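Q: Hi! First time doing this. I have a protein sequence and I read that you can turn it into a structure. Is that right? Here it is:
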Amino acid sequence: MQLDVQLRHGFVSRARRGSDNAAFSLDVGFTVDARALALVGPSGSGKTTILNAIAGVFTPDQGHIRLDGMTLLDTAMKINVRQSRRRIGYVFQDGRLFPHLTVRRNLLYGRWFAPRYEHGLGLDDIVALLGIGHLMDRNPDALSGGEKQRVAIGRALLAKPRLLLMDEPLAALDLERRSQILTLIERLRDEVGLPMVLVSHDPGEVARVATSIVDIRHGRLGSIRSMPNAPSSTVASESAEIIHLPVGTHRSAHFRRSTELREVPGRP
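A: Yes, that's right. Below is the predicted 3D structure, encoded as structure tokens:
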């Protein structure tokens, strides 16, 4: 994944509305080539704002966003690709499942946003990958925090995204559930080959998931660095072939068997 971000935006507080001074301004730019990018830094530095801009739910005053050469936003050129056309999955801290829908129907909601021409992992593949087959008929209020996050990730995957955004997806989980979801995120990175951008305040999470880190400090770029022990790209490039094959082929069936054999012990 090559991600090129340049954003400028001024946020005016109510107390200062009408004045020339912004309570907070975002002026950050970076270009990275990474499979898993972590945005780190103090709370209120603009990390979630950057995620929202990439997703298309926030438009800055000025700037551009390019993903693998495709321009998603360029304010100077008046380009702003609609959120539904960006093919970006978004997993929030609280999951944000539809409370009136079962797990199955929550998952299938994501499929509405998948391009018809794009082959990849289907419902059965994703259910096997996430280990949630026994949850399909439950409502969200009957799920644990870790189960909700797995369903939220599954819903995002069924949209067949080219990029997965995660905004502190583990912050509300206990240590056991956090470890389980971290293992899942690592499998998405390595076995499925799905590029991702993660916001996290936990150095342990960042060390396990990220191949590159962008440090944001008070709306400005602090530093960019690569992780010295980042996983090799070989596994991801091989797995990327699997996700684009039609479900039901021999390779897809092999993928389902391999994920079932690697089920994480102790998952709820």
